[in-house]
Structure formats: structure tokens, C-alpha cells
């Protein structure tokens, strides 16, 4: 797993993945309620999860427990800010 610390960086990374990753390495994206994740794998089929945590203030609760789900990630909503990815040189 690799954690991206800010939502803005995660959004930019997700755009980069959509534009540049060979589709054979893409596995999917998910909204877990407490985090947002992108799933890919390398050429040796090692799974890689890249994620960012949501602020606990945005978590949903029921009966004193945090709700953790697996829902489709709304990528269009994430990219609405038109973030751009800049490669590290």
C-alpha cells in the first residue's frame, strides 16, 4: 500500500493513472467511506493499493461504529477541480 497524504494529490495521481497507465495493469478504484483507493498491479502481478484517508469528520457512523463500505469511486467528482499531475524530475 502507498498512502497519498492529501486529497488534491490523490486526485492528480488518479488523473495521471487514467491518462498514462497501460490498461492491463489497472484493477479498479473504490470509495471505502473512510478512504479512497486506486488498485493496480505491476508486471509480476503484485497488487498495489494507492489511497488517501478521508478526514474523520467526513466518516459516516451507525450505532457507534464507523461505516466502512466498498462503493465505486466517483472519479469525475474527484477530478472536477482540474488538478494536474506533475512528474517528479
Could you outline the blueprint of secondary structure elements for this entry?
Blueprint: E1 2-3, H1 7-20, E2 26-31, E3 35-41, E4 47-53, E5 61-62, E6 65-66, E7 71-72, H2 75-78
Parallel strand pairs: 1-4
Antiparallel strand pairs: 2-3, 2-7, 3-4, 5-6
In short:
The protein is of the alpha+beta class and 89 residues long. Helices cover 20% and strands 31% of the residues.
Structure description:
This protein is of the alpha+beta class. The protein has one domain (2-79). It is 20% helix and 31% strand. It is built from two helices and seven strands; from the N terminus they run βαββββββα. The chain has helices at residues 7-20, 75-78, and strands spanning 2-3, 26-31, 35-41, 47-53, 61-62, 65-66, 71-72. Strands 1-4-3-2-7 form a five-stranded mixed sheet, covered by helices on one side. A hairpin with a 3-residue loop joins strand 2 and strand 3. The two termini are 23 Å apart. The mean pLDDT is 84.
Percent strand equals 25-35%
Structural class: alpha+beta
The end-to-end distance, rounded to whole angstroms, is 23 Å
Biggest sheet features: 5 strands, mixed
What percent of residues adopt helix (DSSP H or I)?
10-25%
Which series of helices and strands comes N to C?
EHEEEEEEH
Amino acid at each position: 500500500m502507498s498512502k497519498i497524504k492529501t486529497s488534491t494529490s490523490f486526485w492528480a495521481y488518479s488523473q495521471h493513472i487514467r491518462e498514462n497507465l497501460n490498461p492491463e495493469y489497472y484493477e479498479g478504484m473504490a470509495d471505502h467511506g473512510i478512504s479512497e483507493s486506486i488498485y493496480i498491479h505491476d508486471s509480476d502481478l503484485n497488487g498495489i493499493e494507492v489511497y488517501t484517508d478521508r478526514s474523520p469528520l467526513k466518516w459516516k457512523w451507525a450505532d457507534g461504529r464507523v461505516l466502512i463500505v466498498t462503493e465505486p469511486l466517483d472519479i469525475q467528482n474527484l477530478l472536477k477541480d482540474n488538478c494536474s499531475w506533475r512528474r517528479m524530475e
